[in-house]
Specification:
heterodimer, A: 141 residues, alpha+beta, Thiol Ester Dehydrase, Chain A, 5 strands, 16% helix, elongated, B: alpha+beta, 5-stranded antiparallel sheet, 3 helices
């Protein structure tokens, strides 16, 4: 049942709108807590962010809108994550995160319509240098 | 572990596996550290009401385990350039997550000695729950 479109005007209006920047000061304690949470004892992560740390630099504004959009699909899953590292994120950095919804796609799933929401994030340091580029796909069904 | 060099690797060779055993407490820690407070990862009643067998591991946490496997292998002198993962299945708590990796391409680009590594996580049933790719730069002996 691809049937009715779940892609509302509210969702379409979010397409390609840049949200943020949301600013994160990268403190040593934040890195330590993250490394402990992922159970990675590499001492390198006391000074430098481990690979998946950008997951903690959440673009709340966009995600809040995407997760709470008024559509009949209520269950949410993270579909894919992709990160490209241009420079390390280090303790003491100030990282600005911008995010946008780049694409919406509805497919017919086994239990009804499934909506894929494609997002892109850019992480920029205090010198204006892009340090990480990220992509994430969220699935609602 | 000894530093791995570009000359040491071959297409088709495995990288050392990593096994993790996440608990609900670890998911709570991860929720706090990452800011992902979606209840399916720590509230069993909520997870079951959402059609899940119980609390499930954050996809990002499993990808973090895969990231650790790759950076452990890369050592001091290697660099992770790209990491991606697709979340295909569920990892439950109190079960092993086995992280695997295989070098699928070894190449030189712009004078850099690179490799593409297929990475995947398996649950105890042998199902691939996260699959992805890492692009890495390795030091060269040349």
């Amino acid at each position: 049942m691809a049937g009715e479109s779940v892609i509302t005007e509210e969702l379409n209006n979010l397409l390609n709108v840049e949200f943020g920047p949301e600013v994160y000061e990268i403190e040593k304690g934040m890195l330590k807590r993250f490394a402990e949470a992922i159970d990675d004892p590499n001492p390198k992560w006391l000074k430098q962010a481990p690979p998946t740390f950008p997951a903690a630099l959440v673009p709340h504004e966009l995600l809040h809108k995407l997760f709470n959009v008024d559509i009949p699909l209520k269950r949410l899953f993270n579909g894919t994550s992709e990160l490209e590292y241009l420079q390390p994120i280090k303790a003491g950095d100030v990282i600005s995160v911008t995010a946008k919804l780049t694409r919406l796609r509805q497919v017919a799933g086994a239990e009804g319509p499934t909506l894929f929401m494609f997002t892109e994030m850019t992480y920029t340091n205090q010198r204006g240098e892009v340090v990480v580029k990220g992509k994430n796909t969220y699935i609602k069904y | 572990m000894a530093q791995v060099y570009f000359e040491d690797i071959n297409e088709g060779s495995d990288i050392p596996a990593l096994v993790k055993y996440p608990t609900t407490m670890q998911l709570v820690k991860y929720a706090g550290a990452s800011g992902d407070f979606y209840q399916i990862h720590y509230d069993k009643d909520f997870a079951i009401a959402n059609g899940l067998p119980g609390v499930i591991v954050h996809g990002w946490l499993t990808l973090s385990f895969l990231g650790q496997m790759v950076t452990d292998w890369l050592g001091e002198k290697g660099t992770l350039l790209k990491l991606n993962g697709s979340y295909r299945g569920m990892n439950k708590v109190h079960e092993d997550i086995v992280c695997n990796g295989k070098v699928v391409k070894k190449y030189v680009e712009d004078g850099r000695t690179l490799a593409r590594v297929d990475i995947w996580a398996e649950n105890p049933q042998g199902e691939k729950t996260v699959t992805g790719t890492a692009i890495v730069q390795l030091p060269s002996k040349a």
